[in-house]
Write a structure and sequence with these properties.
- The complex is a heterodimer of chains A (about 60) and B (about 425).
- Chain A is an all-alpha fold.
- Chain A is built from 2 helices and no strands.
- In chain A, helix 1 packs antiparallel against helix 2 (about 35-50).
- Chain B has about 425 residues and is of the alpha/beta class.
- Chain B folds into 2 domains: about 1-335, Rossmann fold, CATH 3.40.50.12780; about 340-430, ANL, C-terminal domain (GMP Synthetase, Chain A, domain 3).
- Chain B has helices at about 5-10, 15-35, 35-45, 65-75, 110-125, 150-160, 170-180, 190-200, 225-235, 350-355, 390-400, and strands spanning about 90-95, 105-110, 135-140, 160-165, 185, 215, 235-245, 250, 260-265, 270-275, 285-295, 305-315, 325-330, 335, 340, 345, 365-370, 375-385, 410, 425-430.
- In chain B, the strands form 4 sheets. In chain B, strands 3, 4, 5, 6, 7, 8, 9, 10, 11, 12, 13 and 14 form a 12-stranded mixed beta sheet that branches.
- In chain B, helix 11 links the parallel strand 18 and strand 19.
- The chains are: A mainly alpha (about 60), B alpha/beta (about 425).
Chain lengths: ~60, ~425
């Protein structure tokens, strides 16, 4: 896997991207409000990490 | 570790361009898919995001002006049709400060947008040496103007104890920040000076306090003003610059303080162009900022003409190791704040720089008016103690810097001129 600059991802970056992907998937699930709000908040934060590291850039209406 | 994000702050320029181009494609695609305004403007310009193959394709994207944004807001109230999200998905509404007298822009943001705003502030917080264990005091009113809201969240994110100094008068803020042992204070340059003046009045010792860093933002800050602030506080100042239109900052000064601020280029594209022709200008040339932001999903900003005047210099100008270019001297002024007086250009920032060379001057105001025989005049009104040399010296310094233009200097009683907590409005243009 490569980042947006063409670099190979580090092991930490692979795990961060996996967390991001899992939160994206969870955000699309019919969760209870207590879980849905927390997942959206967490996704908003992890998206900054993956965006700042140049792993992925996906605007979202979170 | 001097960098918040060592991976991108030290990227080679080629890799940085690749990152920017990738993010640009995704933002342009998002804008076209979600914003009626951008669909219309892209179609009118014959632009499609798929055309973004190389760096030069950036200029295929049409420019966006504040007038267009305001017109969109008027035609599609209350938020305009730049909006790329359902307003029901937004979490906050803020406005511009209204400094120019124009109707304020209304900007909606999502949680994700606020997370991004805080992220960009963290580049500045970390870059100037603030760390967990610091105590930050925000001398700011926490209203609908976006101001230092993003910095507040940035401090929290960076692990800094954060004290909101809202809803208090200046004296209360001074007593609080001293009593709580604040090591960092954030305010506009104007308000930092006002805090210092008030501290002197009530006998509070700022130089003996724990404050070692001031983060300044919200208005241009000439070196002379910074020198006064640093002397009064016994602390180092760091310049930042942002705007409501992007919801956060675009520039920060690093710990090496090279006389300018780094552009946060992994999150933004900053072009500099001739304000008249729109043609790009080179390093070292004065021009207008044109910003493209990658992080605001509710209001994507693509090639927005800011009216800010800047002079870009290469990253190598600074010794800190970052590869982000800089704006020398920060934001130098605005294309719309220049005043023409009897054929001479007068920039308020330049006048401030000269006034601040005279440490005995407290507050000041620039007043333009027309005489009965229809001649334009410019008066600088100053609050200063009696000094037989001051008025003449200041008049001569101002004239020498403005092609011999005659300035009138008027001494006014202390405390009679307006005070400002946010952006100062020191120019009164009462010309017929």
């Amino acid at each position: 896997m490569r980042d947006l600059m063409g670099n190979e991802l580090t092991p930490h970056e692979i795990r961060l991207l996996a967390v991001h992907r899992e939160l994206v998937a969870l955000a699309g699930e019919p969760l209870a409000p207590v879980a849905a709000a927390g997942v959206r908040a967490a996704l908003a934060q992890i998206a900054q990490v993956t965006g700042s590291l140049g792993l992925v850039h996906e605007p979202r209406d979170l | 570790m001097p960098y918040w994000n060592p991976k991108t702050e030290t990227l080679s320029r080629d890799r940085l361009r690749a990152l920017q181009l990738s993010k640009l494609r995704s933002v342009a695609t998002w804008a076209q898919a979600r914003s009626p305004f951008y669909r219309r403007s892209f179609a009118a310009a014959g632009f499609a995001p798929e055309q973004l193959r190389g760096w030069d394709d950036l200029r295929r994207i049409p420019l966006l002006t504040r007038d267009e944004w305001m017109a969109s807001q008027a035609q599609h109230p209350p938020y305009g049709d730049l909006l790329a999200v359902d307003p029901a998905r937004a979490s906050r509404l803020h406005t511009t400060s209204g400094t120019t007298g124009a109707d304020p822009l209304r900007a909606l943001d999502t949680r994700s947008d606020w997370a991004w705003a805080a992220e960009l502030w963290c580049y500045a917080i970390w870059g100037c040496g603030i760390r967990p264990g610091d105590i930050a005091y925000l001398a700011f009113g926490y209203g609908s103007f976006i101001g230092f809201w993003g910095l507040h969240y940035g401090f929290e994110k960076a692990g800094v104890l954060t004290i909101p100094g809202g809803a208090q008068n200046t004296e209360q803020r001074i007593r609080q920040l001293v009593a709580f042992g604040a090591t960092v204070v954030a305010s506009t340059p104007t308000y930092a000076l006002r805090l210092a003046q008030e501290a002197a009045r009530i006998g509070a010792d700022l130089r003996g306090s724990a404050v070692r860093t001031l983060i300044l933002s919200g208005e241009p800050c000439p070196p002379q003003t910074r020198a006064l602030i640093e002397d009064a506080w016994g602390a180092r100042t760091f310049d930042t610059a942002g705007m409501t239109e992007i919801g956060t900052i675009f520039l920060f000064e690093c710990a090496d303080r090279p006389g300018g601020g780094h552009v946060i280029e992994d999150h933004l594209i900053e072009e500099v162009a001739d304000p008249e022709t729109g043609d790009p200008v080179g390093y070292g040339e004065l021009g207008e900022r044109i910003v493209t932001s990658f992080g605001r999903s509710a209001v994507p900003l693509l090639r927005y003409r800011t009216a800010d005047l800047v002079r870009k210099v290469p990253a190598g100008t600074c010794s800190c190791g970052r590869t982000f270019d800089l704006y020398e001297g920060g934001v130098l002024g605005r294309t719309d704040d220049m005043k023409l007086v009897r054929g001479t250009n007068v920039y308020p920032r330049a006048v401030e720089g000269i006034v601040r060379e005279f440490a005995s001057v407290g507050e000041f105001q620039i007043r333009l008016f027309t005489t009965p025989d229809l001649r334009d005049e410019i008066t600088v009104r100053i609050e200063a103690p009696e000094d037989p040399d001051l008025l003449g010296d200041l008049r001569r310094r101002l004239a020498a810097a403005h092609e011999g233009l005659r300035f009138q200097i008027e001494r006014v009683p202390g405390g009679s001129l307006p005070r400002f907590e946010l952006k100062a409005r020191r120019v009164v243009d009462a010309r017929a």
